[in-house]
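Handover notes (outgoing to incoming on-call)

Open items:
1. ATP-dependent transporter ycf16: sequence verified, structure written out, both below. Nothing else pending on this one.
2. Nothing else urgent.
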Amino acid sequence: MPVLGLQLPFASRRSSFEGAVVEPVDVRSKIAYVMQDYAMPPLSTPRELLHMSAVLRRARDPAAVTQQVRELLEALRLQKCADTLVGSSLVRGISGGEKKRTSVAVELITRPRMIFLDEPLSGLDSYAAWTVVQVLRELAEHGCAVLCTMHQPSSDIFETFQEIICLAEGRVVYFGTATELISYMEQAGRPVPTHLNPADHILFQVQIMSMEDLRQFAQSWAAVENSSILPRIQQVRAAGTAPGSALQPLKRKSFGTQLAVLVRREFKATMRDRTNLVARFAVNAIMGLFVCLHVCRDRPKEQHAPRYAVAFWCNLPDYDWDDAWQLPATAVAVSV
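ATP-dependent transporter ycf16 structure tokens:
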């Protein structure tokens, strides 16, 4: 998945995009990739994350940024939680499904033509998973190709997808629609039982097969692929046109713009986490006083030693507290 999403080097010598043979780097700006564990600042809101992404990756006009953010919040059903903190294990925030939709929205800022999602339903309950899939289906209906990996889709989610690819031991054992899967499994001698999810059936079958049976099962599909799928790919490539200027990489924002956006985000996060902020100042003050008292006790005649020790401590606001026991000795060594 990272290779298809162009997150890792692309080894293929011949790749096509919308039927045209292209260099992967030329279409990077039109392909979005959402990781399974999408890291987002816990003290930011979905609206702020979308706004930051739009400023750094897309529009310059403030009105255009605001409009695009509003449209994405509505399209991905994030209006209710737009101004709620993302949250983390220590900070209460939005739900898991809302986090998934927020991560998708962040990547949609660049208006990609294709989006890859790695396990978008992991850790979600049935309703949250269904909501995410409905949003992905709406994206596909509006012209954005969606490809995502799943391990155990429910029957409702399975029927939502237009085409399905099943992999086993790195080999393709099926590619087609959900309806065609039932007929193909019957032809392969492994029919889907009545009232059983076809996705569960084929995944269970490839798990219990021996390596030899799995090899034959993959070869049987390869024969179908060579006779029907590959000719379609060649036909599309033959009819493809050269990509236009719309596929050119997006220009990076200036250093000043990036710095201003990140400083603003960090300032907001710091002010929102006031408990941690006050605790850091308090710990610095207490430990600084402890160092002063320690130095004054050992060297009472040196009037400047405590001043040096305090200055030394104040320059280390993010000191590793696991090694704090070494600090008094270090402070004395510096002040002597």
